[in-house]
Design brief:
There is one protein chain. This protein is α/β, with parallel strands linked by helices. It has two domains: 164 residues, Rossmann fold (3-Layer(aba) Sandwich), CATH 3.40.50.720; 93 residues, ProC C-terminal domain-like fold, CATH 1.10.3730.10. The chain is built from twelve helices and eight strands. Helix 2 links the parallel strand 2 and strand 3. The structure holds NADP nicotinamide-adenine-dinucleotide phosphate. The site of NADP nicotinamide-adenine-dinucleotide phosphate has 25 residues, from helix 1 and helix 4. NADP nicotinamide-adenine-dinucleotide phosphate binds next to helix 1 and helix 4.
Amino acid sequence: MHSIVFIGGGNMASCIIGGMIDQGFDPLTLGVSVPSEQSKERLSKAYNIAVTSNNNDAIANADIVVLAVKPQIMRNVVLALAPALPKNAVIVSVAAGITVESLQSWLGSPRAIIRAMPNTPSLVRTGATGLFANDQASQLQKATVSSIFEAVGYCCWVESEALINAVIAVSGSGPAYFFQILDIMQSVGQELGLPEREARKLASQTALGAAQMAINSDQSPSELRDQVTSPGGTTERALNTFRNEGLESIFRQAMNSALARAEEMSKDFSA
Ligand SMILES: NC(=O)c1ccc[n+]([C@@H]2O[C@H](COP(=O)([O-])OP(=O)(O)OC[C@H]3O[C@@H](n4cnc5c(N)ncnc54)[C@H](OP(=O)(O)O)[C@@H]3O)[C@@H](O)[C@H]2O)c1
């Protein structure tokens, strides 16, 4: 009897399952369904949990069903498993662009549904996840789903489904923004004469340190920035360049573009 079952066992599901087991979830209560023999073997070896390739068998006794397949196949997967879904099970979808309304219509009857938007640092247990629940989801279901995503990092609830797209613009797509900045910092470091490895390490460690300070501190990022900016110093000169060249405007445009794409995807995949 498995109470939390993953449909799909790729990158995202694997890292969540790994995090849950590290955090003390009992592997006997977890299950996963994947079509390929290769993935079945990999998941069974790595986590010692029940693995099957039959989605409907997998969910027969589930309390929580986590949909972790690609958005493109979500409709067919949900239509096929709907008749086998236990009456009181909550559905958790991690797919971008699949709305509660679409899931509801494919499931065919009112259901507890939670949308989760994790990000790739979940792979190294430093993920950031936004969660939204419809009215059918109980407090107990929400608490259990929080504990699933807390196993791979930070998570928070948002009040409206539209805010899941804001989560995508901030943290879903966010890792790539920082990779882009790290790439630039590394390149400039190399141009200034640092060896590749050292330039990469100095830039990455600086990002980690700044993020850790922002997480641990009660002060806002702008206060932290001001504290490390001496009048007339090097940091001030660099920040003035960002300001004069419109960095904030570029970032605003980029994040609003991500938001617009998330909204388009919700339409593309709608029922
Ligand atoms: N990766 C991320 O950072 C990230 C972030 C946020 C949200 N997401 C969302 O997470 C979902 C999964 O992404 P991913 O990166 O984990 O993809 P992935 O690595 O390609 O994994 C997809 C999984 O789905 C399985 N699958 C395919 N057809 C299936 C079916 N009919 N029934 C059951 N399982 C089936 C695949 O099985 P095989 O292994 O046997 O091929 C594979 O295990 C997507 O909806 C994505 O939008 C991902």
